[in-house]
User: Which sequence fits this backbone?
């Protein structure tokens, strides 16, 4: 069942297209990696899927469940976020705000949901700790728990492993795989890590001014663009 359908979408700024002819769909339970050079429009596409940016033309259709129950979003980490002076619990709970509307306090349902997600991501013991004192990997798990409070259906992640050490990168990928396999949460991830895309994703969207590829990982790895991209990264393919 399609959750997002992107039809003939053109995205750009001030009348100038950045990426055009975007045609793809995301089905429930997919794990889609969006790859492409810097500046090719990956973050712009993420913003468009979050309805933060209007396409210049074409349309992005979403199923009703997503429109109402939201998408969990994990933005790129910024220096400011890393220094955020709030507790883990407060940050995770704030993910519930979009779902329940703004209130000056959290109700029992929100608190339970936040606790459940902290447990799921192995950070329950960090609940009272200050976010900025945590390691990069722990901080990403906090933001992932926060994103999960906003949705049970779909996570959109923008470079979720950048800046993490190799063990934390591995942990993050394993958590996402588990959420995808066990809870059937759809994953859409912008990534520079083409090797991880080859291991974990089931679909690849490779964009530049025109989308170069959309299809299964297996077909991508056989395509000219996929092979070129891999050899440029000095990579072997481990699928
Ligand atoms: P990527 O995520 O693939 O690195 P982006 O989506 O961030 O690419 O950017 C795509 C292009 O759009 C770049 O050329 C960038 O300079 C331009 N761009 C991004 N944000 C804006 C903006 N707010 N105003 C004008 N141009 C922008």
Assistant:
């Amino acid at each position: 069942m399609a959750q997002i359908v992107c039809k003939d979408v053109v995205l750009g700024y001030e009348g100038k297209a950045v990426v055009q002819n975007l045609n793809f769909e995301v089905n429930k339970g997919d794990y889609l990696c969006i790859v492409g050079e810097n500046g090719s429009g990956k973050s712009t596409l993420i913003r468009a899927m979050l309805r933060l940016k209007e396409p210049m033309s074409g349309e992005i259709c979403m199923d009703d469940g997503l429109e109402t129950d939201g998408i969990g979003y994990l933005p790129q980490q910024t220096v400011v976020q890393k220094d955020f002076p709030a507790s883990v619990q407060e940050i995770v709970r704030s993910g519930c705000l979009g779902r329940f509307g703004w209130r000056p306090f959290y109700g029992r349902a929100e608190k339970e949901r936040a606790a459940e997600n902290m447990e799921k991501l192995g950070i329950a013991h960090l609940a009272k700790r200050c976010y900025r004192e945590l390691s990069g990997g722990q901080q990403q798990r906090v933001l992932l728990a926060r994103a999960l409070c906003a949705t049970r259906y779909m996570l959109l992640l923008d470079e979720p492993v950048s800046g993490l050490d190799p063990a934390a990168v591995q942990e993050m990928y394993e958590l996402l795989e588990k959420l995808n396999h066990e809870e059937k949460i759809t994953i859409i991830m912008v990534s520079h890590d083409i090797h991880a895309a080859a291991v974990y994703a089931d679909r690849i969207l490779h964009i530049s001014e025109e989308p170069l590829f959309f299809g299964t990982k297996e077909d991508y790895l056989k395509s000219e663009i996929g092979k070129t991209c891999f050899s440029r990264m000095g990579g072997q393919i481990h699928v």
